[in-house]
Amino acid sequence: MTLQSDATATLTEPQIGIEFYQLLADKVLDGGSVTREEALAILEAPDAHVPAILAAGFQIRNRYFGRTVQLNFLMSAKSGLCPEDCHYCSQSKVSEAPVPKYNILKREELMKAAEQASAQGAKTYCLVISARGPNEREMAAVEQIVPEIKAKYDLDICACLGLLNQEQAERLKACGVDRVNHNLNTSETHYAEVCTTHTYADRIQTLKHVRAAGMEMCSGGIIGMDERPEDVVSMAMDLRELGVHSIPLNFLESIEGTPFQGKATLTPNKCLKALAMFRFVIPDRELRISGGREVHLRTLQPMGLYVANSMFVGDYLTTKGQPPEADRQMIEDLGFEVTTKVE
């Protein structure tokens, strides 16, 4: 392997050691881009290299985000009842998991959750519905509640409503939505193993509608779905090409009753290498440790924040997170600070 850089230094396969990651960080900090080959080397590095990978990755994180951590709060505004067959999801039509099923919540419940998000120091309130895409009633509910939330609380709004057309994206922009989440989840080549009721191209098109409407794109993926390291790298490269603003990286919780029950075979070090790879590939964008961090990072959760600069606080859609107080303590113990704005 050769480290491609404007500099004269190169690194070949027999020489790859912990110095590789510092050379790679220097390249990124000098304005260079990580190649597929270099990104793959991070994912396939020996576990003994993880401290060096995180040390180099932290320099990139520190350049763009300092020692700040952004908090995001998830609100499941509509649960279950989804016609899609995403194999990882407990709310899909092929899931037998016992999850709550309800249509979009009333205004009072959504406002109460916004108050909770604000009290927990969140920067972003993420309003999520389970659906292929929003119907007119759901669009109207979002258009009503978003201006109310923004008038009362200092929160950015991220809407995760499924597939969107251009008109819907423009309506979301007009009512005050700041960003839309629509995860790629995996690579294009692996996507059919994850979902068959829509395509990778459908997801890309939704993100393009969001971008054209002038909102920020939030998009990431899930690690642990039998993908190859090459698939994880391809997803990162596609996200970089799209120019996404925020990248949530999830670690599969193989929920009983879903097609992916019992599938995830992750270790804390594998999760850390994946987080670091995304920081090297997309150095200046929000990188969020998302679902499954408590299960798969376990006692190494704090180490993830040496490369990631964002996390969810509170619970996820159908699974529990650790108490917000524990998240706050973890951030404080690292010597980091919560911020409600990008530094």
UniProtKB/TrEMBL annotation:
Coiled coil: none annotated. CDD domains: Radical_SAM. Its EC number is 2.8.1.6. It holds the Pfam family Radical_SAM. Pathway: Cofactor biosynthesis; biotin biosynthesis; biotin from 7,8-diaminononanoate: step 2/2. [2Fe-2S] cluster binds at residues 126, 158, 218, 288. PROSITE patterns: RADICAL_SAM. [4Fe-4S] cluster binds at residues 82, 86, 89. Binds 1 [4Fe-4S] cluster. The cluster is coordinated with 3 cysteines and an exchangeable S-adenosyl-L-methionine. Binds 1 [2Fe-2S] cluster. The cluster is coordinated with 3 cysteines and 1 arginine. Keywords: 2Fe-2S, 4Fe-4S, Biotin biosynthesis, Iron, Iron-sulfur, Metal-binding, S-adenosyl-L-methionine, Transferase. Catalyzes the conversion of dethiobiotin (DTB) to biotin by the insertion of a sulfur atom into dethiobiotin via a radical-based mechanism. HAMAP family: BioB. Homodimer. Belongs to the radical SAM superfamily. Biotin synthase family. This is Biotin synthase. It comes from Novipirellula artificiosorum.
